[in-house]
Amino acid sequence: MTARYSPAMPPEEAVVAARLHTRVRRGLRHSANWLQLIRFALVGVSGYVVNLGVFAVAVHVLSIDYRIAAVLAFLVALANNFVWNRHWTFDARAGRAHHQAARFFAISLAAFAFQFGVLQALVDGAGLTSLLGQALSVAAAMPINFIGNKLWSFKA
Question: Where do the structural domains in the chain lie, given as residue ranges?
């Protein structure tokens, strides 16, 4: 939840809230930020398709347990998304690839832990099919990925 200025706020909190509000307003005014968001979304869609494709083949063709298939799909989509986000979305080729990769992996691992918990809850708890559970759980973890990568992995 975004902090908003209130007369009852202590002065230091009011300054932080005002700075955040100003940063958000400035960010929304720059078309480059909107273009970056669109690129991130397109990379996310490609990673989503790669993830579900690998997952479906692993489960339905190779008869791999859905939990192991989820890990395999995550790793393949992770490689796909790192390359596209580094070179196209954030144009971060000037940064050190191994530092970016380590940060990208850490953010992706945190998002995957969340996604994996949601997957198990949907499949084992709610009785959804594993493919539908995978599709919904990957979508649920997307905000974690975007925020982490925008603010940490590929920050300018």
Answer: 33-153
CA count, 13 A, side-chain hemisphere, 38: 5
Cα–Cα distances in Å, from 127 out to 119, 133, 140?
11, 9, 18
Distance CA 102, CA 92 (A): 14
Integer Cα distance of 141 and 156 in angstroms = 23
Q: What is the DSSP letter of 123?
A: I
For residue 25, pLDDT beyond 90: no
**Whether the predicted model's global pTM rises above the 0.70 cut:** no
> Of the candidates 122, 140, 117, which has an alpha carbon nearest to the alpha carbon of residue 132?
122
Residue 92 CB partners (closer than 8 Å, separation 6+): 85, 86, 100, 154, 156
**Per-residue pLDDT tens over the stretch 82-125:** 999 998 988 888 888 999 999 999 999 999 999 999 999 999 99
Asked if 75 contacts 112 with a C-beta cutoff of 8 angstroms, the reply is: no
Stretch (H or E) spanning 47: helix 31-56
